[in-house]
Amino acid sequence: MSFTATLNQTLMVTALPQMVSAMHVGLNLAQWLTTGYVLVLGIMTPVSALLYEKFNNRPLFMGLTFIFTCGSLLGALSTSFWVILAARLIQAAAGGIIVTLTQILLMSIYPLEQRGSIMGYVGLTISAAPAIGPTLSGIIINYLDWHALFSLTLPITILILIAAWFIMPNYSTPQSVHIDLISLFESLVGLGLLLASFSFISTSPLIGVILFVTGALITWLFVKRQFHLQMPFLNLRLLGNHSFRAMTLFIMLVFGIMMGTETLLPLFTENVLHISALNAGLMMLPGAALTAICAPFVGRLYDRYGIRWLVISGIGIVLLSCFPFFFFSDRTGSLWITLCYAVRMFGISLLVTPATTEAFKSVSPQNLNHATALNNSLRQISGSFFNTIMIMVASLPASFVTGFHLAIGVTFILALLLLLIEFYYQERSVHA
């Protein structure tokens, strides 16, 4: 179920040009089908740690799967853009909790010395599922209409629900916890307005600035509130831990690069090369397959050799992969694009599992669920932010090719920042 929820982050990516045409909306609005999903996924993630403490994991998992199924059904039956967006947000609200709940359960069950291997399989969800989304979407759109992106998930989630009823055990013991609804409201409104401001800034600068300032103020109130709550909605005090802070920031930037690339490339191939949604999705398949294959092996390599050389190699590959992207044009061959994307995704696969595992290395067992929620939440929110920013950057010039090159430049800068964070982390670790 965790894989299905994460897969849906990018399932709409290849379908965006069709949604723009079918719903008669602009790209900046249509991209909220992806951006809104990832944002709500991130905002709802902190609730997972509190719900894990408040309820038994079995009924909690089943209830969330049922909500996700309802969202899929709503989307499958709808013809209105706003109802479709609502369906996506319902899916994300349940999916954000499911993804983190699964991760908390796995890290609670398995010992520390096996955590790298276990996180390798978690990496299948974190990086491989979003990578597969555009390919699967392209295949579905080619043979069926966009409603199938919702309806085809229904039998899967129903089967998961039935399986959970019969075979899923309880691992958690309910405790008395309080969920701060004011914090939930502040995070949803504050971050939502911040993201919306980027969509408006190029077309209505005044509205964009007003939304940004209002969103920033509400987000600041949210952050301030967390340090005054006895049981915070998002335990930001965990960022005082050096390993957790550095590696969480690292993962946020990696996810920004990954989400940005996975969103931009189908738009480039469909709008510039005029390739069908099916072929655009298939061009991304080797990269997705490579990510899925590498994730478990990278986890084992981390257990044996640690983080340093895996991460340095991954950053180097991501940086080098930017250069061919800078020269993509309407005459670039599809095989070359496929190869360049696969190389980039291989580099990203070397980063996700080691950084995620390293982030939790020095987190105490009693804080593990809150650390997982915070890490996942910030990762999803950053993916949503960078996705919006890169769409905005790509849309600024009159030529989408030029805009695409500028957006890839953003990913190059993010990769350089990854290198700085890694050097800073290793330097601090040596002197700690």
TrEMBL record:
It is found in: Cell membrane. The chain crosses the membrane at residues 32-52, 64-84, 90-109, 121-141, 147-167, 179-200, 206-223, 244-268, 280-302, 309-329, 335-360, 381-400, 406-425. It is a multi-pass membrane protein. GO terms for molecular function: transmembrane transporter activity. Keywords: Cell membrane, Membrane, Transmembrane, Transmembrane helix, Transport. The keyword DNA repair does not apply. The keyword Cell membrane applies. GO terms for cellular component: plasma membrane. Residues 1-430 form the Major facilitator superfamily (MFS) profile domain. PROSITE patterns: MFS. This is Major facilitator superfamily (MFS) profile domain-containing protein. The lineage of its organism: Bacteria, Bacillati, Bacillota, Bacilli, Lactobacillales.
